[in-house]
Amino acid sequence: MLSILIGGCTTQKSEVTLRVQNSGTSDRENQMVEIAWDDLKQKFGTVSDTSLILVDGEGKQVTWQIVTNGTDSKSIIFPVTLEADETETFRITEGEPDSFEPLVYGRLVTERKDDFTWENNRTAFRVYGPALKATGEISNGMDFWAKRTESLIIDKWYRDDLAGVASYHEDHGEGLDFYKVGRTLGLGMTAPIHNDTLCLGDNFVTAEIIDNGPLRLTFRLTYEPYAVGEKMVTETRIISLDAFSLFNKVTHIFETDLESLNVATGIVTDESLEPVTFGDSSGIIAYETPGNEANGTIYTAVIQPAGYESVQLFDGHYAGLNGITPGSSYTSYVGGGWSKAGFDSFEEWVSFLKAEKEKFDQPLTIDIQ
Q1: Most buried among 39, 87, 246, 348, using CB within 10 Å?
Q2: What domains sit in the chain, N to C, each tagged with a CATH number?
Q3: What are the pLDDT digits (tens) for 20-68?
Q4: What pTM was estimated for this model as a whole?
Q5: 193: phi then psi, degrees, rounded to nearest 5
């Protein structure tokens, strides 16, 4: 989603200038920019990654985060807002940065049967853990919490629900959980296919937070091996959610003895109703979840930058299908919107998705000086 140029010589500097350009046809609001730490070090030389100040063209400090992806390789991220064909200049200098309130949050909710639940300032999600499986409730799909507040609400909703004060299945002004997952992929997860049937794993076994804000939360989930035909598959998921975004970056890694694997990325559908969908092989699948007057309507989607070999109703899901190589990373962007939080119709949701897809097709350009 970014194209990075490193200009000039590599003489050590006390200040680095970043020129970020939006060459696309749609405006970008709070799109996350990511720059490899090694690229900055070519300009700075030796510098601590905790002693940097990032300012915009008006000299105002900008929130930023160092991310590690769980390894020694690092990058720096920060949000930018640019109109179509606009360029903005930022400066990075050594110094003591301001403290910034976190805009992302997630944790293992042991008090609610090992849910792993996460959120940013716009949306929230959940997957199900081992303690819930022990009760007989099995699902490795993604749940969606409809949210219409910029506040981080996970702890509050769980606390009030468990205390009997306010159920998070009812809207008390901030949103609610009314998305139905069950024994499905829920919102946009990916599973292997065997004989035209989805092969679903069980609840996650372990959850590990890799990066923890203030702008990006990343965590890793592992699953027990499960059968795909006569072979066993081991699945790992790495999920990232950035501040301001409605979409998670979801990377699935399936390891098996099979030479190739067919997979489906699916959104669960209500098979009793005629589905309202949008999608084709270019890389967007979207589904309007049947709503009601009290709770409104959830709009769901997956963006696959590389596109799909086919898109179809498949085994209770609206799905994009691809062939992949076992052991490789397979990444999609998964999220949802809500009729009570900015989307008045499915058509408006689809227009939004097309603009989101442009972020991959026409990435921001960064020139490091």
Answers
A1: 246
A2: 2-100+362-368 (2.60.40.1180), 104-338 (2.70.98)
A3: 999 999 999 999 999 998 888 887 766 666 678 999 999 999 999 999 8
A4: 0.94
A5: -115, 135
